[in-house]
């Protein structure tokens, strides 16, 4: 494993919600970071079929463009009753004809397909959020970190916190959805804590333990 010997990195994302969450996680470690969106980098085509492949594509593109280490995230919602969909195509389910993303529409689509398949009980609506972080250097070296959190799909969206599919994901052991949790509650982890709740926080915890001297 290669250690990160700088606190200047690029957050390889154009997703405002994801950039905000990563900024919340890296902030306590004193990082000076700009996003690929701020730097006007072109979004690379995500042609991978796994979270690991797409995270690597994004991180390498930003690292090589900036000449700095870059941290990317590829994440998605994996629903058992939908044979793992939407999975790596989680964002695609929210795409509209004009090129924008409508996650309210995407959540309705999830519910419609679950109803079509007769998945009406909590036991039939199991799911997990997956996050894979990729740390890439300009020389092409990469490190990957995967985090997952189990839960169920709520029958209707609840809450306005977070982003994406957060209002319909209820993590195991909780009565609230990610959409009803503050950022602190959703991540459930800060330096020195033993536990992390969200998929992204769990992946980030492994990144910290592996690549940072803390």
Automatic annotation (TrEMBL):
The lineage of its organism: Bacteria, Pseudomonadati, Pseudomonadota, Alphaproteobacteria, Hyphomicrobiales. The keyword Nucleotide-binding applies. Homodimer. InterPro entries: dITP/XTP_pyrophosphatase, ITPase-like_fam, RdgB/HAM1. GO terms for molecular function: ITP diphosphatase activity. Binds 1 Mg(2+) ion per subunit. Its cofactor is Mg(2+). Pfam families: Ham1p_like. Belongs to the HAM1 NTPase family. The active site is at 74 (proton acceptor). Its EC number is 3.6.1.66. It is an enzyme of class 3 (hydrolase). Mg(2+) binds at residues 45, 74. It comes from Rhizobium lemnae. The gene is rdgB. It comes from the Bacteria. Substrate binds at residues 13-18, 75, 163-166, 186, 199-200. Keywords: Hydrolase, Magnesium, Metal-binding, Nucleotide metabolism, Nucleotide-binding. Pyrophosphatase that catalyzes the hydrolysis of nucleoside triphosphates to their monophosphate derivatives, with a high preference for the non-canonical purine nucleotides XTP (xanthosine triphosphate), dITP (deoxyinosine triphosphate) and ITP. Seems to function as a house-cleaning enzyme that removes non-canonical purine nucleotides from the nucleotide pool, thus preventing their incorporation into DNA/RNA and avoiding chromosomal lesions. It catalyses: dITP + H2O = dIMP + diphosphate + H(+); ITP + H2O = IMP + diphosphate + H(+); XTP + H2O = XMP + diphosphate + H(+). HAMAP family: Non_canon_purine_NTPase. Gene3D superfamilies: 3.90.950.10. This is dITP/XTP pyrophosphatase.
